[in-house]
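Lay summary

Proteins are chains of building blocks that fold into shapes. Our project writes down both the chain and a compact code for its shape. Here are two examples, one after the other.
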Amino acid sequence: MNNSGLREIIRDIKNIDFLGIVATIVVAWGLVVVIQFVLYWLAARLPTRFRFHILPLAPIIRLLILSLALFHIFPLIINSTPENIIAILGAGGLAIGFAFKDYVSSLIAGIVAIYERPYRLGDWVAIDGYYGEVKSVGMRALQLVTPDDTTVTIPHAKIWSDSVANANDGQREHMCVADFYVHPQHDAQQVRQKLWEVGMTSPYTRLSRPVVVIVQEKPWGTHYRLKAYPIDGRDEFQYISDLTVRGKAALARLDVQPALAPPAITM
């Protein structure tokens, strides 16, 4: 847009009511401060159950006040002719389109996710470094709850660029792994058998699925991976803890020593 076009849209500086603009900004800012203070004051004194309904009102009211202030300031600066309004709305629509392109991308990805089903309610997934159970799948984003009871909102657009690791893929249970690191001087066959028995005798184990012990020799010792399925995948961490505690006790009875990490090499 050239300078002549701007002059046609923006009022002459002599005709701009700067006092009205400043007054509008001051009033809007004052209302925002007062309303936020009142809302926080109420939230601190009302029962806890009301706090989470009152506090979310603060940004909504702030946005409403700022929008009304802009609508009031707009005609004080702009020549409100039909041509100018159309030009400004067109430029604003283009800017909004760029601003919301990620939002639209997430909506499209949500439709693709419904068809391809990389995750469902109840699935245990790892996305963008977060691992947890999917609690809700909306049009724009999904919410998962981590083992630390933290709710994480992840936009569906992540499926365009990130891998989605799904532990159970719609099934009730999923494989869990307990790791054991022991000194290389031991009877590997005996240790492997004992860890298999630990997996088979756990009250969490789904006996219809296989229990497998994988053995890997490392320079610093032997790595055992006890792999089994719990009856309910939601018991994953209780299950791994049970396998670990009972496995360590079984290895102690066999007088198997734990592996020691090699000392760090300093230059």
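And here is the second example, written the same way.
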Amino acid sequence: MIKQEKRDLAVFNLEKFIYEKVICRPVSMFLPDLEERRDEITRRVAGKRVLVIGGAGSIGSSFIRALMPYKPAALIVVDTNENALAELTRSLRSGGYSVPTDYIPYPMDYASPIFERMFRERGGFDIVANFAAHKHVRSEKDMYSVAAMFRNNVLNARNLLALLGEYPPDCYFCVSTDKAANPVNLMGASKRLMEELIFAYAGTFPVKTARFANVAFSNGSLPDGFMHRLSALEPLTAPTDVRRYFVSPEESGQICLLSAVTANTGEILFPKLEEAQMMRFDRIAEDLLAAMGYNVLKCASDEEAVEKAAALRSGSRDYPVHFFTSDTSGEKSFEEFYTGTESLDLTRYKTLGAITGKVIDDRDPVLDFLARLSDALEDPKTDKESLVALIGG
């Protein structure tokens, strides 16, 4: 039976399911803006040298697929996940994409000396897009994980921006998050700091970013976990009281492309989504099981669900789930893309809003604060409470 289940998953059309049951749109919401700006995007991408950092991840690889039709002259992809880079390369070459002759996937850390050497010897790039980031609130388990998150999301980016200052690109893009608006956790705070850092360089080269919601079935997400549980015939668990905005993987790449090459420097783009478009995780789980031909068997605990999952290996079509009320400490009860104090332009794009006026004229205070943050992260006496006090101060 397990082999049969794996065959069922292999032929399951996940993209179709996402559009029909998760984002509830027949096609990408960003198609009108992509079509209207096709010539502009072509002019700014065709023949250009592009560097994508973290390009083997869910959003980075979607950005690359959105970029490819506009024919860049060179594409260098940097990621620490060597296996994912190999799969990205196979996918691009077998998926009908026009891959540039100068295409190199590099399994390396963008904060490493070998990356800096590669960057310098290539003389920089025209377009640099950075997707290397910690993105989950669960990364805040202890000071080790918090320090790693701030290093990746902020301090490593500081070193990259200094390098870009020597070889100014036509544009620098990095992805932010809705959690950067009125952050309530350290992950959101790290992304807000990242925004302030990049906008401190807006006078040196064009910088842009985007805040958007959950990418449906992205690597490491709860819906992606559903697919892994189904493959192993293990029970599903999901909260009943968490509603989130979702975009498809395809849409995530498109919003990043539009932000990178059509936004003005110092702007943050975000999707124009309505509250009614939010989706609950337990609803996604139920719809997924129905699409797979299962009946939902609700259980009162994880232990009960695990016990009843044994019947799946004998061919049962009753799939055990445990739906629960979540502990939302450290998480927002709702998503927001902008604050009441930020200036908005809601007319320039059909499907996107723009947060404007984010250029920081004096970068010294930002860099001074990051130096203090780096010292604090190196100090073994620093705990989460003192780090929160430093950031909040």
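What can we say about the second shape? The mean pLDDT is 90.
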